[in-house]
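Board notes (copied after class):
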Amino acid sequence: MKTDNQKKTIRKILNYIRKYWWLILVSLFFAAITVVLTLYLPILTGDAVDAMVEEGRVDFRVLKELLVKMSVIIVITGIAQWLMNTANNKITYMVVRDIRRDAFYKIQRLPLKYLDSHSSGDVVSRIIADVDQFADGLLMGFTQAFTGILTIVGTLFFMLMTNVWITLVVVLVTPLSLFVAAFIARKTHSMFQKQSEARGEQTGLIDEMVGNQQVVQAYSHEEKALARFDVINKRLEKYSLRATFFSSITNPATRFVNNLVYAGVGISGAFFAINGYLSIGKLSRFLSYANQYTKPFNEISGVLTELQNAVTCAGRVFALMDEREEVEKIPPREQIGTATGAMEIEHVDFSYVEDKPLIQDLNLSVKPGQRVAIVGPTGCGKTTIINLIMRFYDVNRGSIKMDGRDIRDLSRENLRSQYGMVLQETWLKDGTVLENILFGRKDASREEAVEAAKLSHAHSFIKRLPQGYDTIVKENGENLSQGQRQLLCIARVILCRPSILILDEATSSIDTRTEMQIQSAFQKLMANRTSFIVAHRLSTIKNADIILVMKDGKIIEQGNHEELLAKKGFYTNLYMSQFAAD
């Protein structure tokens, strides 16, 4: 199974590399020049040795010519090697760029189900750390594999031209070196795979703890966080040491075999030289070739180890890219231009986990322009209804209709363009305040954004910022208070002027006075606009046309504020628990 996965991963890597075939040809061309010239040098060296082999018989004219040739060859080899490395770098980083782009594109198309079930740190680790590891292995592969293979082939050719019998000694010992390298490479794969998984888990923990450091310190969770980190870190250490050990013994093991080759060439070559079948210069040439022939095996064994790590890391990235996308089950039919806001929820069942039902036989009819409030204890399914309406998740059974159309018959883009959404958890991107307000409507003008900010009561605090609307907001608004971040999110929705408004604890982080002002703005925004309001503070939903009281995934009561109070049921208990003093 692992072998099949490796083969699939390698095929995918080759598909990415194939696009840059012309650069591969350039790299191969300069690699060939480098190898040929490198292998030609021992011939000149051997000739130089033969030119001064006897005392008093040194041919300085021949030596001078040979030294000039050797100097020119060394310069050309250096230039060819530089051009080959440049081509290899370009191939590697263009492939890495393409993989990262496709992986990020994939994340944008993954369903929330995947992102909810995987830590953000692990996903980030796959795209950043694993792709970096893959790049290192790929670069080493291009740099050393090409020249290594060409060197082996070229050396054998030149050795055969010099002496067939000594070449046979070299060839007979070669399989032993290959066997040792292949055996150790197989052992390293599983360790590198576990190392990558542990690294992803560690990145996830660091991302979680650093991103929520205030909460960690507020609850004195530092020691427990350190303990968790130590456990993961020790596991990473164990796998890393084993992976390093197996990868480290590859080179010494193959060097030992290669030294046997060198010794075999030296002994057999000396025998031929003593008997007059080989000159001293040719023997030195052969010893040089034997050394050059065995050197690529050391390099290739190291490359195999790095490639094992690279394939493992690439496998984690491709596993992410192979996840099922959020695709339409059927081609979207005619799309909705501007929705009236009529919604029908009919016999809907839904659960996040198959054997743990949550929403059961949910029915609701919402007329255009109605305000629907959803209340109930934590975990009863309030936010789940919003997720289903937005098609972040699809229903298991039943249907949800907008303007009489099943929302599964609409494209998600068309469906979501009808909604404006303010969540309890705010999100702001790295950019200016103005860019964050314009996030939901790129074609809006600066004046429209300022007007939306005034309606959301964000304008006053924005004007107090160092550069006003051009102030840079740090990642997720770290330089703003929670309330200020929420006001910007509200301004963003006001600017969109959607057909249907969804407010999920939209004013939970705002002071009471500002909340009253925003409620006034919301009243204007919700006029003639269907609205869904999720709130724990029941004072914010008194004016709703319909209040849905949920418990254990079911609507147990339904009506307006006065009707529900008159029933003296579950809603009355909720309301009285908040306003008992009144």
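Comment from the instructor: The chain has a mean pLDDT of 78. Residues 222-274 form the longest helix (53 residues).
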